[in-house]
Amino acid sequence: MKNIYKNYNEEDLLAAYLYMTDHTGKINEEMREVICQKFNYDEFVKKAEFRKVLIKEKGRIAFEVHNRVQKGEEINLIVGNISSEIMESSELKIFILDKFDQFSKVKENDKIDKEVIYKSLLGIVIASVTGFLFLRAIVAFTAEFSFFLLIPVYIINYLVIYGITGKTRDNLIVFLAVFISVIISTVLPFILFI
Fold it and tell me: What is the pTM of this model?
């Protein structure tokens, strides 16, 4: 039987090693053989264990950054108050800045205020008309209605509302606006032509 691990590079072997040891507590003979052929086994295991510790440390730091972003703390305060015994200070700072940026964007996107509500209402009107015109054109061309047409209507309406609000569908108001506009776009042709 061919040893599947022979073509693995170091990163793939590390990932496979960690996965296998996390789920079974040991590795199989094929993996052990390839590791011993390509690397010093003890050094490889140390590297893998360090990787596991580093992943947990990054998870801890990301969780802490997330909580501080939710509280509204400034980046300078966050960088100054989070430390790590595992990560180097420059690597830690870059990681914190990256997570701060990521979590800040999510927080900003999820924010609901009057401006988002007003823009979403405007988006409902414009997206409903756009979706209606699209649906009407397709039904006129094909002479039949299919529920599969709701998928492109949803996409078109979402893009219109996203363009107006600048928020993704992860924002509750935008999600509701898209949902309402799809319903209006779908029902409007039947109301107008009855």
Answer: 0.73
